[in-house]
Here is the input.
Amino acid sequence: MDWRLKGTIQKVLGLVPGGERLHYALQKRGGGLSNFATECNMKVDDWRLMMGYLATTNVAVAGATMLEMGTGWYPTFPLCFHLAGATHVHTVDLNPYLKPEKTRALVTHLLETHVPLIARLANRAPAAIAERLRAIGIALHRGASITDATGGGVDYHAPADAARTDLPAASLDVVFSNSVLEHVPKPVIEACFVEARRILKPGGVACHAVNCGDHYAYSDARIDQLHYLQFSDAAWARWNNAFLYQNRLRAIDFLEIARAAGFAIELDTSRARPERLASLDKLAVDPSFKRYTREQLAVTSVDFVARRPTS
Here is the structure.
């Protein structure tokens, strides 16, 4: 689909009554939810990577208390962390997007496809993972919420604000998100990191995976992930919308926001790939991005772990 057509449709749906319901229906018909198994597999693989980052930075998931920023339509990361032994996973969203039917489908898909992976990463018996998933699935099919079905292990709140959680200070081990921060205005991200530092225990970590490329490229093969760098802020505002807001921040910005909030960066995967640099050299980048180096502009993803100092 032409990216401009998609942007126009989403812009209209964000303004009309019932737009969220219509947007969800379109996503199921021809968008990201049209092939649930594929999308779910990608999310589980993203969780696998995050488990690796936490292990690399010596963060134990078993027994951890965690907070996810941005739940979405179904709670892949919170449920996987719950199965891996996390004691309590809060997950919050500004809007109540969580869909019971997709949550049930998630449990079924994990049970059918991903038990061995989850068991291996959690260092638990596959039978125990499968038994837990079956129990959660039965509860969900009987009408229980994800919070009740997991005995409070996955605690869903929406509408809720990750910048004002009301959680006690120094009460969490991990704050995390996946493909969320690129959709949040910079001042809100800054407020969320200040709040994360408050609610994390000394030595606790924030772990975030950010896809900071043009998301319209996923539906329009004629453009690439650096496409949106051609536009001024005013011109890009025409295409931003309630369902696909993109802040166009570069990877370095997220790291600097974390440092400004008092975190130390312990892991940073951002790299300027040769093909992105070649693509950038063919692009007329808007002057509003002149503060960045060529390499900083070309980076379209970053996963990072930021630790709250112990003193």
